[in-house]
Specification:
Blueprint (H helix, E strand, L loop, with lengths): L11 H16 L8 E2 L2 E5 L6 H7 L7 E2 L1 H13 L3 E9 L2 E8 L2 E8 L6 H9 L11 H17 L6 E9 L3 E9 L5 E8 L6 H6 L10 H4 L6 H16 L7 E9 L5 E9 L5 E9 L5 H5 L12 H17 L6 E9 L4 E9 L5 E8 L6 H5 L12 H12 L4 E7 L9 E10 L3 E10 L3 E10 L8 E9 L2 E10 L8 E11 L9 E15 L4 E16 L5 H9 L9 E6 L2 E8 L10 E11 L6 E13 L5 E13 L41 E12 L9 E13 L11 E12 L2 E10 L11 E8 L1
Parallel strand pairs: 2-5, 6-8, 9-11, 12-14, 15-17
Antiparallel strand pairs: 1-3, 4-5, 7-8, 10-11, 13-14, 16-17, 18-19, 18-34, 19-20, 20-21, 21-22, 22-23, 23-24, 24-25, 24-26, 26-27, 27-28, 28-29, 29-30, 30-31, 31-32, 32-33, 33-34
Helix pairs in contact: 1-3
Length: about 775
């Protein structure tokens, strides 16, 4: 049987009947077809599809009997593949003929008018829903793709978007698809109305929301562009705002979103029920506490008599679960059940502790380290496979990996091990950053205009965790070439070793200064011995030769040094010293990150002493940095440094060991290395004592969310340099205050500051704008 007369060998009435039967099969009706034994199967009409593919969907084989059920099943199966837009079955002298018409193939997908999204991203997204090059053309899939494009534009606030889809047939049963996009203008939030709030003002509640009307920074943050996801987050933020202030039953009842007919302005309305303010009446512990009820109760931040706070309740639950995690109970849960007395506006809580099973760590995995070797990360772990789960050790492991300074981000997840009830896996994911660094710095002043410095350094060489390479530092006033190597794990138990060979040349830091040149050649080796997770003691020795060259314009202290060390009687000429300095140091680092810390402390104390060489001196340095989050988005950073040097055995303190201050890293707003006593030419001489203090309030940049790599800050600096034997007076300190931005950009760190000197004196050299930036490789 067949529908084409040139192949149809049966009477005409039979042909009509079978044609009707085929249509009936497709419509689900039961029309009888005379069964026949299939002698052969032939497929016609295919262009790209293999005949074997068609055979695989047929429910009948050669030698079997064809009937109604098998015909219906065959047609439905072939249609379901999505490859064919028409399927017919015919019989030709016992041969089952399958005639198909294939759907066109998509030759290309293109876009015009797309500015909001990258074309490559759109092509990839549409291919995932079945519309892409080499895919089978399906009109319904193209319609879905068009709706998905509109949805993406609506999520970006482009409510006036118009999309025209054109499907063009081309040779070999193919089509091209063009999405012509008219993006229109971005719809912006014109007004946010809050209804039902009595205790708190509209302004206070709007500040808790991420969505806002247009303002100074909304061009960057896009906070004035509506999205359903952002609104959902803001609803939760408003609820949290009330919960944190005692309003236990506060709720956002409804929200309305309306858009103007021209689709350019959006109006939001938020309806709130505040409820009553509650005070905590009592706190109880319940469940299995293993005799640690008093200890766990001390972790609860909610206190009787205090106003209820949802944030403190959440933090209390987490503190208890973390403490249980220290004992191996990774699956511990805490359920704080409230008992509400609405008449008295009191709420009591019973903290029910369910420790679950004690858990072991099965596997510890590392991901994201394409360059850094696994062992470099794994040796920082303090949690080990096969041991009890300990949340403190896991956090310490994360912090130690972050403090390496090789990664932009370090995250830890502890999922339950599949197929077990008492094991977890610890998965550490890192995001690497360039560890080679080319750094330039500079400043601007009216007298010197722009000045620059530059240096090059390579860390984590070949992913080994070692710092190996050549350091180059060049500026207008100094040159440094140093060959160095630092191995943080010189021994398996964490003893580090560092050595350096260097050549330094220093000249006056200003064009009107007296002329002199200091050349230093030397090297040193230092070992670091860890005494705890955060404490390391260092000791080492070095050798250094220093040559000082002067002329008649040189500052008097340099002329005196030449005279005292075998130079000409008038000090004009050169002198050379030879020193063997020994060093002893201690460092403590409890920061959560080496690059963007938000909590913790960093301290270092260093003593350098030479009693063997010709110089005879000692030099002590103490620095402390302290970080504390004041809110979830604001960090207070404090830094202080005290440095002191003194000559031994009647020798004057070497002038080439003087400390300097001023500029980035010390007292911003003053010219680099310009503080302290100056000579008759106005030259800053440095000194044997240095005091520095810095305070910063650090904030995330508007629109950057929780990204810590981009921050702005306000600061206050103070510091001064004092000569050997000079009395330290607080009124001689120089101070400044200002604003700045720091950014760990994809090409390296950038820091910009604008400072106003607060107590400059006559003769001080000031500059308000200073910057430091670098690039990674």
């Amino acid at each position: 049987m067949k529908l084409h007369s040139d192949r149809f060998a049966l009477p005409f009435h039979r042909r009509s009947l079978i044609g009707a039967a085929v249509l009936a099969l497709c419509s689900g009706q039961a029309l009888a077809v005379t069964p026949f034994v299939v002698k052969d199967i032939r497929v016609e009409g295919i262009q790209r599809t293999e005949a074997g593919t068609v055979f695989s969907y047929l429910p009948v084989r050669v030698g079997e009997t064809f009937n109604d059920d098998k015909g219906s099943a065959a047609i439905k199966a072939l249609y379901a593949t999505g490859i064919f837009k028409d399927v017919r079955l015919e019989e030709d002298k016992g041969v089952l003929v399958v005639l198909v018409e294939e759907r066109p193939a998509i030759s290309s997908v293109d876009f015009s008018g797309t500015k909001e999204f990258e074309k490559d991203m759109l092509v990839k997204a549409l291919k995932e829903i079945g519309v892409g090059e080499a895919k089978t053309f399906d009109k319904s899939a193209v319609d879905r793709a068009e709706q998905e494009l509109k949805r993406q534009y609506l999520s970006h606030g482009l409510y006036g978007v118009k999309i025209t889809t054109t499907v063009t047939p081309i040779e070999r049963n193919r089509v091209t698809i063009m999405f012509a996009v008219d993006e229109g203008d971005i719809a912006r939030i014109r007004q946010i109305n809050i209804i039902g709030n009595k205790t708190f003002s509209d302004k206070e509640l709007r500040e808790a929301m991420k969505l806002s009307t247009s303002g100074w920074f909304t061009w960057y943050s896009k906070a004035d562009q509506y999205s359903k996801t952002k609104l959902t987050g803001d609803i939760e933020a408003i609820k949290s705002f009330y919960l944190d202030r005692g309003y236990l039953e506060a709720n956002v009842e409804s929200t309305q979103v309306s858009i103007t007919p021209d689709k350019k302005d959006i109006y939001l309305t938020v309806n709130i029920t505040e409820g009553e303010k509650y005070t905590v009446a009592d706190i109880k512990m319940d469940g299995e506490t293993f005799g640690r009820e008093a200890e766990l109760k001390e972790l609860i931040l909610l206190k009787p008599g205090a106003v209820y706070s949802g944030a403190l309740l959440t933090a209390s639950n987490k503190r208890i679960m973390d403490r249980m995690g220290n004992f191996g109970y990774a699956f511990a849960s805490v359920d704080a059940k409230p008992e509400i007395d609405r008449a008295k506006r009191l709420v009591s809580f019973s903290f029910n502790v369910d420790p679950g099973k004690r858990a072991y760590v099965r596997h510890m995995t590392i991901s994201g380290n394409t360059t850094t070797r696994d062992e470099v990360i794994r040796r920082e772990f303090r949690q080990f496979e096969g041991s009890w789960y300990d949340s403190n050790k896991i956090k310490l492991s994360r912090d130690r990996v972050d403090r390496l300074g090789y990664f932009k981000d370090v995250t830890v997840e502890t999922p339950e091990a599949q197929g077990t009830s008492d094991q977890v896996d610890v998965n550490i994911a890192v995001v690497e950053k360039p560890t080679g660094n080319f750094m330039i710095g500079g400043a601007f002043s009216q007298s010197e205009k722009f000045t620059f410095t530059a240096s090059v350094q390579q860390a984590n060489f070949a992913g080994s965790g070692e710092t190996i390479g050549i350091e180059l530092n060049t500026s207008k006033y100094s040159r440094t070439i140093a060959l160095s190597q630092t191995n943080p794990y010189f021994t398996d138990d964490g003893v580090s070793r560092a050595f350096q060979i260097y050549l330094r040349t220093t000249r006056p830091p200003a064009v009107n200064y007296g002329s002199y040149t200091i050349r230093q050649t030397g090297g040193n080796m230092t070992f670091g011995v860890p005494f705890s997770e955060i404490d390391t003691v260092f000791f080492g020795a070095g050798i250094e030769r220093t040559t000082l060259e002067t002329d008649v314009t040189s500052p008097q202290i340099y002329l005196n040094f030449v005279k005292q060390n075998g130079g000409p009687a008038n000090g004009v000429g050169s002198a050379q010293t030879f020193s063997i300095p020994f060093t002893a140091a201690w460092g403590r680092d409890s920061r959560d990150s080496a690059t963007t810390p938000t909590i913790g402390r960093y301290q270092r104390a260093n003593l350098e002493i030479d009693v063997i060489g010709k110089s005879k001196y000692y030099r002590a340095i103490y620095e402390q940095q302290w970080y504390r989050p004041l809110t979830r988005w604001m960090t207070l950073a404090l830094r202080g440094e005290v440095d002191y040097g003194h000559g031994l055995k009647g020798k004057a303190y070497p002038v080439f060991k003087n400390f300097y201050a001023g500029g980035m890293g010390s007292v911003r707003g003053y010219y680099s290395s310009s503080l302290g006593i100056v000579d008759v030419n106005g030259d800053a001489l440095g000194g044997s004592t240095r005091l520095l203090g810095n305070a910063e309030l650090q904030f995330p940049f508007p629109g950057s969310g929780t990204d810590r790599s981009l921050r702005w800050f306000t600061f206050a600096d103070a510091g001064q340099i004092y000569q050997e034997g000079q009395k330290i007076r607080a009124n001689e300190l120089r101070a400044s205050a200002g604003l700045g931005v720091s950014w760990i950009s994809p090409v390296g760190p950038l820091k910009i500051s604008y400072a106003k000197p607060l107590n400059e004196k006559q003769g001080d050299r000031t500059e308000r704008f200073q910057f430091q930036m670098g690039t990674g490789f």
